[in-house]
Design goal:
homodimer; about 200 residues; alpha+beta; Glutaredoxin; 4-stranded mixed beta sheet; 10 helices; globular
């Protein structure tokens, strides 16, 4: 079934709704013989380019509703959620680590990505800290010193920059943003539409 | 079953997602012995108070995605949709007519509201025009001349103003915005959560 085109999943590790979707998208895709390409990016750059902002830094009624909806949507989906004390936060260290790991071991990179999301949204850890990212990586079996050097390499910094540029060029404006055969879906709440799309090949 | 508190449905007649929810909310509520109070308001005032804007007047990637998502969400829900040529547009005439009708005949007001939404989002009619609103009202059995006078009355203008003020005071920041026993749900895509909430009395 691997001849079907992969699904692209664009996200920032600091997005609550991207975390929720990250807990479901691979299993859903697998049911339809699809793989998912994960693309961590930096929403700060995306938002700046579009003159937008994180939900919790928008006007007060929307920020308050969003806080409530993050937790309720997690309960609705049966996924643990604890809003981080530090939020929003910078995620370039985690994103760079992901791309370096992915170049060596796709499955390990995926385990690392899940561990980062859960560290932030379950265990309230500050994943903007380089040491925290290294500790998370070590917990899934990555050589800490090797990763510490790798994430500082020009190649890895350039890779992340290219991913953000690509995201901007295809119209990604927030996260999670999923593209299936050219069709974009924004938000964890589009999972039912994604499932219908995969079932029917469009609708 | 009428002893359960009614559900409040806040909307602007110009909101595509409010139109989609309007086609489902009464039937869903009725399955749980609930009535729905419809509250047409003016999103222009709500957006101005919060420094926000309609989706299609936000940055280009979000505007483009929204146009695609309006139509796709309608197909997903099995509801006819044709994006209006004039959009967004002013809806105070329709909203005032709704409140006047509601004071005389609740069921007639509901038929009128559905007719306004469908005139705009199926038949591409310009419901910002007072004559169009009167024609829609006449089509569901309202006396056109009586309505034409009523929507100009200070009492009806004040009623709409009060509804907008109430919406602002409880944190309504967009549409559709549904409140069930104090719990707010924003967006037609929250219908599954609304159903779960009604089933479980919270989750």
């Amino acid at each position: 079934m691997d001849d079907k085109a992969p699904i692209d999943f664009w996200f920032d590790f600091s997005s609550p709704y991207a975390y929720l979707l990250s807990e479901r998208i691979d299993d859903l895709a697998a049911r339809f013989g699809r793989k998912v390409r994960w693309h961590p990016i930096l929403l700060g750059i995306i938002f700046k380019a579009n003159g937008s902002a994180p939900l919790t830094l928008q006007h007060a009624p929307k920020a308050a509703y969003s806080m409530r909806d993050f937790a309720r949507s997690a309960r609705f989906m049966g996924i643990p959620y604890r809003h981080p004390d530090k939020f929003p936060l910078a995620t370039q260290n985690a994103a760079r680590a992901y791309y370096w790991l992915h170049g060596r071991d796709c499955a390990l990179a995926r385990r690392f990505a899940h561990a980062v999301f859960r560290a932030l949204f379950v265990d309230n850890r500050d994943v903007s800290e380089p040491d925290t990212v290294l500790a998370i990586a070590a917990s899934v079996g990555v050589d800490r010193d090797e990763l510490a050097a790798a994430v500082q390499s020009p190649e890895i910094k350039e890779r992340l920059k290219q991913e953000v540029d690509t995201a901007l060029s295809i119209g990604v404006f927030g996260a999670p943003y999923v593209v299936i055969d050219g069709e974009p879906f924004f938000g964890a709440d589009r999972l039912p539409q994604i499932e219908r799309w995969l079932t029917s090949g469009g609708f």
